[in-house]
Every structure is written in C-alpha cells, then in structure tokens.
Design a protein that fits this description.
Layout: E1 14-18, H1 23-34, E2 38-43, H2 47-59, E3 64-68, H3 74-88, E4 91-96, H4 111-132, E5 136-145, H5 159-179, E6 185-191, H6 206-210, H7 221-232, E7 243-246
Parallel strand pairs: 1-2, 1-4, 2-3, 4-5, 5-6, 6-7
Helix pairs in contact: 1-2, 1-7, 3-4, 4-5
Bound molecules: NADPH dihydro-nicotinamide-adenine-dinucleotide phosphate.
Length: 252
C-alpha cells in the first residue's frame, strides 16, 4: 500500500470512520488512506486492532488517528468528530460502519439487545451525520454501511438486525434531501456476507449463505472498501440517497 499512487484522488481530504478497528471498517480506513485521505477511525473494544490500522497507514506514508468512542454513546461520537476536526482542521468524508449483529429466537431476544442494536446500527448514524455536517466541506460525502439483509433476511432470529439496516435505507433517502443543496452526498452500501469476525467464512453457518449466492463465495472486505472509495471520490458526485447492494447476488 502506498499513498503516493495515481489513485490518490482524496489527497488533502479528511475522513472520519465510525468503527474502523476491524473487518470492513479497517479495510475502508486503509483504502481511503491509500487514495490519499487523512483518516480518523473510532473503536470501542479493540484498541490494539485500531492502533494496528493506524500503524499500517503511517508505514505506507499516510496520516491516521484512532479514537475510542462507543457508538452507543452520542456524546462520545460528537467528541470524536470534534477531535478529528481539531486535529486535522477539516472534514470531508464520514463513513458510518460500526455495527453489531445480535441473533436470537423471538422468545429469547432481550430488549437490551434490541435497544443496543438500534443505538449502534441506526442512532449513531444520525448522531454522526448531524455533528459531521457542521464541519463538513460542501461537496462532502457520507457513506453508511447497511446490509443486504435490508432486502433479504433468510434466517430466523435476525429481525431486529434486518430492521436496523432497513432503517438506514429511509434515513439515507431523507438526509439526501437535507444535504443535497450543499452538494453533500449520502449513500448506503449494503454488503452481503463478508468474511469478518462478525460473519466468518469458515463458520458452520457459512455454507448455507454461500448456497444462496449466484457468486458462491463470501465477499472480501477489500471489495466493500473499493466500492466505498468510489462513492467517496469526485466521480460519484451524482449518486445520493441510494442504497447500493454489493452482495454476490444474495438478494437477487
Ligand atoms: P466486525 O464485527 O468484524 O467489526 C465491527 C466493527 O465495528 C469493529 O471495528 C468494531 O470496533 C466496531 N464497533 C462495533 N460496535 C461498536 C461500538 N459500540 N462503538 C464503536 N465501534 C463499534 O464487523 P464487520 O466488519 O463484519 O461489519 C462492519 C459493518 O458491516 C457492520 O455495520 C455490519 O452490520 C455490516 N455488514 C457486515 C456484513 C458481514 O457479512 N460481515 C454483511 C453486511 C453488513 P471494536 O471492535 O473496537 O468495538
């Protein structure tokens, strides 16, 4: 990875990634840095992973900052965005990646898990967008990480997760109307099964998911990151309010 490549279309831009320590968020952080952006990333429980992402970006010649901020805590999100702006003097790109997946039969699903799912998967997106646009340059980018489960939920026990990702579809449409006059785009990327700690490709469950996809394999975090990088680029200025599925045909 080198930031001094011809792909460095995000040079001088600052990106804030909510949940960038592991999995898809870490891949997005590294990819945006590779494209020239300065990256601030939050983590909650994985400081070592977050610091490793920062190190990798720095070794490649980029700049990055890891900030502890629980996405269930609105004040922590706002403080992290303010620290990013204070440190790097601007904000151009917000990626809302932090997410949790709780699965349990309806009878056993706790209200605590229900509320935490909504707080991290939905409310944090609203809070971060509201705070970020105070500082964001006109023409900026907001990219949410939803899920193909907003379109297809083929197993029991995942209703609240599917609901949380469906909520992002509507939130993204509505906020596009708020932000369009400033040329700020907001889009919702909906991955299918991607090999991460949340959804390992070697789990017992994985074969059943592979069987549902025309492209019968798990996605790679780099594939999602590449799509996010495109949405963050100047080329994508005319895409907004969209939910864009990248799922190997899972929902087809
Ligand atoms: P992982 O569980 O591998 O990573 C989750 C990331 O979110 C970590 O960086 C974690 O940070 C962060 N995070 C979780 N909770 C919080 C919190 N309370 N505050 C701050 N950060 C938090 O998940 P994935 O990479 O697989 O998922 C990333 C996103 O993609 C999620 O929104 C998920 O719903 C979505 N997605 C994933 C799919 C998949 O198959 N993997 C498919 C479709 C969508 P830390 O460890 O530091 O707490």
């Amino acid at each position: 990875m080198s930031v001094h490549s011809e792909n460095a279309v995000l040079t001088h831009q600052v990106a804030f990634i909510q949940g960038g320590s592991r999995g898809i968020g870490a891949a997005i952080a590294k990819r945006l840095a590779k494209n020239g952006a300065i990256v601030a990333l939050t983590y909650n429980s994985s400081p070592d992973h977050a610091n490793k992402v920062v190190k990798e970006i720095e070794v490649a010649g980029g700049r990055a900052l890891a900030i502890r901020a629980d996405s269930a805590d609105a004040e922590a999100i706002k403080d992290a965005i303010q620290l990013t702006v204070k440190t790097f003097n601007r904000l151009d790109i917000l990626v809302n990646n932090a997410g949790v997946l709780a699965i349990a039969p309806l009878a056993d699903f706790s209200l605590e898990d229900f509320d935490r799912t909504l707080a991290i998967n939905v409310r944090s997106v609203f809070v971060a967008a509201q705070e970020a646009v105070k500082y964001m340059t006109d023409g900026g980018r907001i990219i949410n990480i939803g899920s193909t489960n907003a379109e297809r939920m083929p197993f029991a026990g995942g209703g609240p997760y599917a609901m949380s990702k469906s909520a992002l579809v509507g939130l993204t449409k509505g906020l596009a109307r708020d932000l369009g006059p400033r040329g700020i785009t907001i889009n919702n990327v909906q991955p299918g099964p991607v090999d991460t700690d949340m959804n390992p490709a070697n789990s017992d469950f994985a074969d059943s998911l592979r069987a549902m996809m025309p492209i019968g394999r798990y996605g790679k975090d780099e594939e999602i990151a590449g799509f996010v990088a495109y949405l963050a680029s100047p080329e994508a200025a005319y895409i907004t309010g969209a939910s864009l599925t990248i799922d190997g045909g899972f929902a087809a």
